[in-house]
Design brief:
Largest sheet: 6 strands, antiparallel
Strand order of the largest sheet: 5-6-4-3-7-8
Number of helices: 5
Distance between the termini: 27 Å
Structural class: alpha+beta
Length: about 180
């Protein structure tokens, strides 16, 4: 398959594919630009192809690439969540490893809560934030880890409707 939008030279893991998809969606989504939607269709097809090729590839804390045995995630789940959130004002998305953290959703947005649940997102009651993580690793400790610590380990990138901001990009490590 010929890849037009994704920079495959910068892709090592599924996390990298997701980050590039999010950037491309923010730039080419018909609700946020003057594009007619054709570019977004091509981007979605490329994402599906790259997802299938990188879905089992991740990095550990040391930055070493490895292959996972399996994944429960499918390519449509991430696309569906991004397409919903891209239309919501004052919502910020953070890609941290293979997790998507969703900032800016308050208690009054009950309809959005129902949509996020239907899309497979969960609410982290201690961190007070929504997230999507299909392949969660088993927790090895009962110790609470701060969100900042998670960012330091995995690096993170923030996106909202108007601009992109970067968190602690030490190096991008898949979960």
């Amino acid at each position: 398959m010929k890849i037009k939008f994704f920079d495959t030279n910068k892709i090592e893991t599924l996390s990298d594919v997701k980050k590039q998809y999010k950037k491309l969606a923010m730039k080419h989504h018909p609700d946020l630009s003057s594009n007619d939607g054709e570019d977004m269709k091509i981007i979605n097809n490329e994402y599906e192809y790259l997802f299938e090729n990188y879905k089992l590839i991740a990095k550990n804390f040391k930055g070493e690439t490895y292959t996972k045995k399996s994944t429960n995630e499918n390519f449509n789940e991430f696309i569906d969540i991004v397409n919903v959130l891209i239309k919501v004002a004052n919502v910020q998305m953070e890609i941290c490893g293979t997790w998507l953290w969703i900032h800016g959703i308050d208690k009054t947005q009950k309809e959005l809560h129902s949509i996020l649940k239907a899309l497979g997102c969960s609410y982290h009651s201690k961190k007070k934030i929504w997230y999507f993580a299909k392949d969660r690793s088993k927790k090895k400790t009962f110790k609470t880890v701060s969100h900042e610590t998670v960012r330091e380990h995995y690096g993170s990138e923030f996106y909202n409707r108007d601009e992109k901001s970067t968190g602690n990009n030490l190096h991008q490590i898949g979960a």
